[in-house]
Design goal:
Helix content is 24%, strand content 29%. It contains seven helices and ten strands. The protein is elongated, with a radius of gyration of 23 Å.
């Protein structure tokens, strides 16, 4: 587990309010976990802040060390805190998150978090389809297809490198678009509504060029989301979205029926 770059002493921030947890129906570990999560949510605890030790939490809440340990373990598994052996527990940097079950407007998603969104379009061109691209878009190898590359940023920090191929038979005016006020996915969803989607996620290492575009170390792993969409059985686009693992997470919530939960 990676140690937070700047470990700020928790004693410099407002202290935990010592209290005994309610012994109602909510499990004791859950009450401790919720209390810490609320302090992270409201800003009392910030990224890099040190939490009280297990011994201190036991004394403050009047519960067993096993209960405190479970609360901290679950917070760590959710990415809310980082536990450094022999050092302590610290509030983790919160990662951006996108769903896997649907295509969302990344710009809207970022703005809903209260952050600034920007996109830098790097490439918009016609290229000859490679064997892989031709198979994905159901065109002939060497046939002309559209290709675009852009970087999506949150508060000026790159969080996604998007490398996209588009079927020109369905979107003949793709390269003529003004990309200063829209992103390719937004345009495609509006222009050619899809009725089928495929998502595949891999853990990969970036190339030197990809790492440079994402302003990250080449030794840092990435999450690669590969997406294909179809309309009435005809492939629309193949897109690979590369995310620095330290800045982004992919996840979904769904009902037992398999349908996405409302968001």
């Amino acid at each position: 587990m990676k140690q937070v770059a700047s470990l700020k002493d928790y004693s410099r921030r407002p202290p935990f309010a010592p209290r005994r947890v309610d012994t109602g129906q909510v499990a004791l570990f859950q009450q401790v976990k919720d209390h810490i999560a609320r302090q992270i949510q409201d800003g009392t605890l910030r990224a890099g802040d040190r939490l009280p030790s297990e011994h201190e939490l036991v004394a403050q809440f009047g519960i067993s060390r096993m209960t405190v340990n479970r609360a901290l373990r679950e917070l760590a598994s959710q990415g809310r805190i980082e536990r450094v052996a022999g050092v302590g527990s610290f509030v983790a940097e919160q990662k951006s998150q996108s769903t896997l079950l649907q295509i969302v407007n990344l710009a809207s998603e970022i703005r809903q978090r209260g952050h600034d969104y920007s996109c830098e379009m790097l490439v918009v061109e016609r290229v000859a389809a490679s064997l892989e691209v031709a198979a994905a878009l159901d065109v002939r190898t060497g046939e002309s297809v559209f290709h675009s590359v852009c970087v999506h940023m949150e508060d000026g920090t790159p969080i996604q490198l998007e490398d996209r191929f588009v079927n020109p038979h369905l979107v003949p005016d793709f390269v003529q678009q003004d990309w200063s006020g829209q992103q390719p996915s937004e345009f495609l969803v509006r222009t050619v509504p899809f009725d089928e989607i495929e998502h595949v996620v891999d853990a990969v290492m970036p190339s030197r060029e990809q790492a440079q575009r994402l302003k990250m170390e080449v030794s840092e792993p990435c999450l690669l989301l590969t997406r294909r969409t179809w309309t009435q059985g005809v492939p629309v686009t193949l897109v690979r979205c590369l995310h620095p693992a330290s800045r982004y997470r992919l996840g979904s919530r769904y009902r037992a029926s398999g349908n996405p939960a409302a968001t």
